[in-house]
Design brief:
Blueprint (H helix, E strand, L loop, with lengths): L1 E8 L3 H17 L3 E5 L9 E6 L9 E5 L1 E6 L2 E6 L4 E6 H12 L5 E5 L2 E6 L5 E5 L3 E9 L14 E13 L8 E6 L8 E8 L4 E9 L5 H15 L5 E14 L10 E3 L15 H16 L13 H16 L1 H13 L3 H8 L5 H9 L3 H13 L5
Parallel strand pairs: 1-2, 1-11, 2-8, 5-13, 11-17
Antiparallel strand pairs: 3-7, 4-7, 5-6, 9-10, 10-11, 12-15, 12-16, 13-14, 14-15
Helix pairs in contact: 1-2, 1-4, 5-9
Protein name: Lycopene cyclase
Amino acid sequence: MHKYDYIIIGAGLSGLTLAAELADYLLDNNKTLLIIDPDFTHFTNRTWSFWTQDPAPYADISLQTWDHIRIAHGRQELWKPIAPFTYVSIDGSSFRRQKLEELAKNPQISYQQDTIVNRMQQQDKLVSLKGEQHTYIAEYVFDSSFDIQQLKDYEGVQLYQQFVGYFIRSKRGLGNQKMVDMMDFRTEQKEAIAFFYVLPFKDQTLVEYTLFTDTIRERRLFEEKLEAYLANKFDPGAYTIVDQEEGIIPMSSYRFRSKHSHIIPIGTAGGCSKASSGYTFTFAQRQAKRIVRSLQAKKSLKGKVFSGSGRFDFYDRTILRIFYKHPERSAAILTQLFALNPTEQVLKFLNNETSIWEEIKLFSSLPIPLFSKYALLELLKPGRK
């Protein structure tokens, strides 16, 4: 049996982010950390994108940065500067490799390739983990493992952000190098919010087809949409698909909680995927800092599942209701949000950084009767359909 002060399950975005935040604390307090992952050598290809006022920490692993975004709906195209923000895209494999190399220098951190099959909190508040290889004991376990099937029986409001992306190369680039096509809604919007997302890198372009859908769809649907989109942009044979990525991110009113006070869910499992947008990276960074601050202050970690501000949770659940009930109207609403407000304010709002007065101005630019109706429903029946 192997005993540690802390254990992180999963060496992905949230697990390695937390480990990096813990590094100095471990050294200063002579605490030990074990990171458990089924495989430290292979990693699912994934691109993480976000906007930040300080891109410098990600300079070494950035695929590219941009200072403009575009929103398109019908005949309307919005080209929007995003200063003081920069839109950043990083390669998940590069992020993982960099963090593992940095953490390997810390003598308080160990690694174990294993798969956890059982989690149990003991009476003395220690946590016992049973793996396929060993059994582990820790004061706290930070668990990033998340199975989308956990939400299968949830009866509240939820959508899935499901996407498939092609990395393509061509003699003629796809898109403006200085601009991200953040949401191109010029596709069918009947049963689900649908858009194309285009990141033009220096030597290739990522084009994704994304749905905010209440049912997980077959991959072939995404391939057909991508093929039609690219056929409209290129002559046959004028591009090559060099790589692909896909994913399913929960957008849910479900309140992520742990059954055990010393097993702390992190990342998507800890509610870091924003319910109204699916963006995760920024919120995973905040959650990690919040956990470390609590440890430094010797505060209990019970209830430290990320939930942000109560009012932003309320906004997210209200917006999610509208997306769920009115997918055919949602593209126009999102376009209107960007068209009638400074982009900086919209991005601050999506990052949970606006003041109440700024939020009032943003919401006053949108269909007030519709938002009022679903805000009231959320007050009366929180999270329920």
